[in-house]
TrEMBL record:
Name of the protein this chain belongs to: Response regulator receiver domain-containing protein
Database matches in Pfam families: Response_reg
Domain Response regulatory: 2-115
Example GO biological process: phosphorelay signal transduction system
Key words of the record: Phosphoprotein
Source organism (scientific name): Paenacidovorax caeni
């Protein structure tokens, strides 16, 4: 599966890409929301978006809202240094929100599985 990883921190993006590649997925990196929209428009094989919340120009939540406004219904996981439950309450259409902390490598694979299973069911 091809996954778009959106993060303005190159090191964090590479770490997420390593987790995905360890799961057998292909990671496509975007440095911000504008880059992400361009990559999604150019590559219809992307099946999932994982985005950082706090980025310059376009935040992760704003990227999610813009994609939904454009009719893009790809599964979307938001990573945040803030409280994930608060962001899910703020935007209930989000597929998932995960704390961007030392447990990310442990929790992200299971969360991807849950999100993709939910989307497969419709």
């Amino acid at each position: 599966m091809k996954v778009l990883v959106v993060d303005d921190d190159a090191l964090a993006g590479e770490m997420i890409a390593a987790v995905l590649e360890g799961m057998g997925h292909e990671a496509v990196l975007a440095e911000d929301g504008v880059d992400a929209v361009g990559r999604l428009n150019a590559d219809s094989s992307i099946a999932l978006v994982i985005s950082d919340m706090n980025m310059p120009l376009v935040s992760g939540i704003d990227l999610f809202r813009e994609l939904r406004a454009q009719g893009c219904l790809l599964p979307f996981i938001l990573l945040t240094g803030d409280e994930p439950a608060g962001l899910l309450a703020q935007e209930p259409r989000l597929d998932a929100c995960l704390a961007k902390d030392f447990t990310l490598e442990e929790h992200l694979p299971a969360l991807i599985g849950e999100v993709m299973t939910r989307h497969a069911r419709g």
